[in-house]
Amino acid sequence: MTIPPLLMGHPLANKENASYALLTMSRIRKFEEAVEDLFGRGMMHGTMHLSIGQEASPTGVCMALNLTDQITSTHRGHGHCIAKGADLMRMVAELLGKENGYCGGRGGSMHIADVETGNLGANGIVGGGIPIAVGAALSSHLMKRGTVAVSFFGDGAMNEGAFHEAANLAAVWKLPVIFVCENNGYGMSSSTELAFKLEKLSDRGLGYGIPGVTIDGNDVAAVYEATEAAVQRAKAGDGPTLLEFVTYRWKGHSRSDKNLYRTKEEIDEWKIKDPILHFEQVVRERGLLNEDEIGEQHRLATEQVIAAVNEAMKGNPADPAGLLDSVFKKVSA
Amino acid sequence: MSDRKLTMSEALREAMAIALDERPEVFILGEDIGIYGGAFGVTGDLYHRYGSERVRDTPISELGIVGTAVGAALSGMRPIVEIQFSDFTAQAMDQIVNQAAKIHFMVGGGLHVPLVLRAASGSGTGAAGQHSQSLEGWFANVPGLKVVMPSSPYEAKGLLLAAIDDPNPVIFMEHKLLYKVAGTEDVPEGAYRIPLGVSRVVREGKDLTVVATGIMVSRTLAAAHELDKEGITLTLIDPRTISPLDMDPVYESLEKTGRLMVVQEAPEHGGFINEVIAKVVTSTSLGHLIAPVARLAGMNVPIPYAPQLEKAAVPQVDDIIKKAREVVASWR
Ligand SMILES: Cc1ncc(C[n+]2csc(CCOP(=O)(O)OP(=O)(O)O)c2C)c(N)n1
Ligand SMILES: [Mg+2]
User: Fold this and answer.
1) Cα(A83)–Cα(A63) distance, rounded to whole angstroms?
2) Any idea what the CATH number is for the domain that residue A159 is in?
3) Which ligand number lies closest to the CA of residue B40?
């Protein structure tokens, strides 16, 4: 399984970038569809939090990042992981509880981390990754590495104390960190209307002296531009930025969601604002990609996901014999 | 009561409905307990029956939720907090441990905190390390908290009603694998209370005394049925509340069996179950032992994701059978 090289730059800069952006979003979509299928067929255990409908945010953000820039992710983290460059096969293997999965079957969907691509990990704790990204940024600052850290989190996470303490620390220390709130309208069943007294969640930046911007999170180019500006700011030593990407989750929160808190009409309305269809339209209009080239990205994505699933199935199930040895990193002599 | 086999979710919901009917000062708060009906469906239709004031959906703010409940409890209310996964009590630890547990004592008795914190606990759902822990031992180690671990629907209803009546903070740990399982005993329709701090002798046998908590009660019971066939009979004791802990039935039983085995899901190291052993070996009960105490607990690892790993990490029915056989066979 070859990892496609990470590509940086504006999704609409040229044919190559446009292809890459579309391919990445398509890979995320197809990956999530494959997960849903594996789950439905009883081959995957636990739960799943799918990011279908939200593909533009991870894709646009990661196109503004270097391989050495770091991210922290969430329970809804497959997209972040893929956009940062993770190996699809090792991701599926993890979901299937295989020895060659990213976590050796110990973590599953909510805990995939990938050191090589700067992914410090998904997180089962809402808000758990936010201060960790601040710490990664502190490390970069102290060691003068010149890298930035991005924390992805949902709207719901902004009501955890962790967000507030992390935002203030990052602000007063002017750390190179970017807070990326993927506002999909709901934290499980609570709508942002019920959970906030704010129109724009990015206004919370004000309370910490951090610039906050609200962007159409289904527009991959706009996501890229906002992130790129935040990266520049961070690298210039001007401190953190709070980005709010407004988007929508098409699927239920997790496997057990009956969608009682929203209407079918609302879901359908957002499906029209599909980030992938939107991007296809833009690249077509601009003459960046033709129909064949668009189709080719989806074909490639499907092929890669199928290959990943097939290969992952062949892996050995994780062996309980290794459990006790996995708890602590060996102390070197 | 004829044929009322409820699941633990249903039994807990009945208890909360009774409490909401009985006392205007009872209310429930937590994440997704309203329209969604609770992450595990425990509050179910209570939101529709009692409204959004008394069944309050909250933002994702565990520290705020518990702290608000503490303040309300100090001011005449009886809040029932639902924490989606017991792992997230970590977010609220200051309010539970430094505030709720100690206020009554520290202020010299002038204030008290009648609060129940219900939380979904335990492994078995493939939710991995941050959604599967058995943290009851943490709370049992904090003076001022009562800690309840219901083992069946019947127990859950009676214990929850007693917990709501209690004028102190009660941590109520519900094993998530028990939520959807129908109990074997009928659950009476109306109110009944099971006092906190009284252990239950689930069954009596002659060879071995087993003390098991939470889901390990039904697992030990399943093991006991198998062992019966081999002529090994065991007494099973469910402490129900691990704090306060009622040891009397254990001491009494050991006079007959002379063999003790303790079973818990939580990791062995520093776990609650060691307290049971300590109490036995530091009392005259030690003199009744004819065998070393047997201990079966979770491995000292975070709960892993893959099903085969997750199963291996905590005691299963077969492990209990094997261990019980060993103890009885080796020490005749
Ligand atoms: C500390 C904590 N509280 C509650 C949960 C349960 N939970 C998991 S995801 C979720 C909703 C999160 O909403 P949001 O941050 O908006 O992310 P989204 O699911 O919408 O991507 C909740 C309540 C959790 N995992 N961790
Ligand atoms: Mg959300």
Assistant:
1) 8
2) 3.40.50.970
3) 1
- Separation CA A79–CA A109 (nearest Å): 11
Who contacts A232 (Cβ-Cβ below 8 Å, separation ≥6)? none
Percentage of the residues of chain A whose pLDDT score is greater than 70: 98
What is the band of A256 on the pLDDT scale with cuts at 50, 70, 90? confident
Q: CATH number of the domain that B88 lies in?
A: 3.40.50.970
B269 to chain A, any CB pair closer than 8 A? The answer is no
Residue-by-residue DSSP string for B80-95: EEEESSGGGGGGGHII
Q: What ligand 1 atom has the least distance to the C-alpha of A188? A: 11
Asked if B222 contacts B181 with a C-beta cutoff of 8 angstroms, the reply is: no
Angle in degrees, CA A115, A323, B310, rounded to 5 = 100
At residue A17, the 3 state secondary structure works out as helix
Q: What is the pLDDT of residues A204-237, one digit of tens each?
A: 999 999 999 999 999 999 999 999 999 999 999 9
Q: Who lines ligand 1 at CB under 6 A?
A: A 75-76, 124-126, 153-157, 184, 186-188, 249, 253; B 31, 60, 62, 84, 88, 91
Pairing mode, strands B146-148 and B170-175: parallel
Helix (H) or strand (E) holding A212: strand A212-216
Q: Which comes out higher in pLDDT, residue A116 or A256?
A: A116
Cβ contact B139:B145 at 8 Å: yes
Asked if B125 is an interface residue toward chain A (Cβ–Cβ < 8 A), one would say yes
Amino acid letter, A140: S
DSSP-derived letter for residue B235 is E
Residue B60 and residue B62: Cα distance in Å, rounded?
Answer: 6
Number of domains in chain A: 1
Beta bridge partners of B130: none
Token couple for B270: 């520093």
Is residue A1 situated within a structural domain?
A: no
Measured between alpha carbons, how far is B7 from B179 in angstroms, rounded to an integer?
A: 6
Q: B209, B257 in Cβ contact below 8 A?
A: yes
- Asked whether the beta carbons of B232 and B328 are under 8 A apart, the reply is yes
- At B7 the three-state DSSP class reads strand
Do B161 and B272 sit in the same domain of this protein? no
User: What are the backbone angles phi and psi of residue A93, rounded to the nearest 5°?
Assistant: -55, -40
